[in-house]
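Justification of resources, computational component.

The compute hours requested in this renewal are based largely on the per-chain cost of generating structure records like the one below. Each record pairs the submitted sequence with a full C-alpha cell output. That output is archived, and it is also reused by downstream analysis tasks.
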Amino acid sequence: MHNRKTHTLYQQLKQDIVQGKLPEKQALKQAQLAERYGVSRIPIRDALQRLKNEGWLVEHGKSSVMLRPLNADDAQDLYLMRMHLEPMLLAHAAPNINFETLGKARDMNAKDYLSSIAFSMARLQVELGQTDAAINNLADAKVSANKIEDKELKAEIDELLESLQDR
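The structure output for this chain reads:
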C-alpha cells in the first residue's frame, strides 16, 4: 500500500511540475505538500527523493527542495530535441497517416513549440536583464503564435511584449 501511494503521489507531483502547477524558485516543504495532496509526510518525502534523484528537484536550504531551474541553454536543447523527435515518433506511431497530414502536423507542432520556447527564452532574458533580446524573441513568438490556437500563450506573449516596450 505504501509503495502504491508513493508511486501515485510521485506521478502526480511530476505531472504538476511539468504542467507548471508548483511554484518556481520557492522552497517545496514536505508539510505543505502533505497538506496539499492529502497524505502524510512519509510518501511526500519518498516521492521528493525520487524526483530529486531524477533531476527534477534540487536541495533548497536544510530541509526542503525546489524545482531545478531551467536555463536558456536547457530550454533551447529541449526545444530542439522535441522539434526533431516528435515528428519522427508520430511517423512511427501512425503508419496509416498520409504524408500531407504528417507534414501539416509537423508544421503545426513546430509553430506551437517555437512560440512556447521563444516565450520561455524571453522570460529568461528578462530575468537576466537582456531586454532587447527578449523583445526580439517575443516578436518571433508572436508571429508564430498567430498560427496556433493557444489563446492563453498568445495573451502572455502580448502582455510581456507590451510591458517591455513600455519601459
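The helical segments are 2-18, 30-37, 41-53, 72-93, 99-127, 131-145, 151-165. The chain has two domains: 2-67, 72-165.
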